[in-house]
Amino acid sequence: MDQPLSKNNNDIKDLSFEKALKELETIVSRLERGDVELEESITIYERGEALREHCDRLLKQAEARVEKLTIGADGRPKGTEPLDPQ
Questions:
Q1: What is the pLDDT of residues 30-59, one digit of tens each?
Q2: Half-sphere exposure of 63 (CA within 13 A, CB side)
């Protein structure tokens, strides 16, 4: 049986990326099955949106911390610079 969700989303800020993503996947699965009553659908959709925003924020923070090595003309590492994924 699915675990009841809190109506208060303040706990989301303390979730790790992995836990938030797992809960978001559970919400999506429940909504896709269509066996949730309308009022609960709205509540879990709103929580899902808050979880998605939290995961997005954590990913952006992680991307900002990732660096790539820069290689000098002699082929040796000379330092780091921010990773530009594009």
A1: 999 998 999 999 999 999 999 999 999 999
A2: 9
Contacts of 79 by beta carbon, 8 Å cutoff, 6+ apart: 69, 70
Number of C-beta neighbours around residue 24 at 10 A: 20
Predicted confidence (pLDDT) per residue in 5-20, tens digit: 445 789 999 999 999 9
Return d(Cα 40, Cα 5) in angstroms, integer.
Answer: 9
pTM, entire model: 0.69
List of residues 6+ apart from 24 with CB closer than 8 A: 48, 51, 52, 55
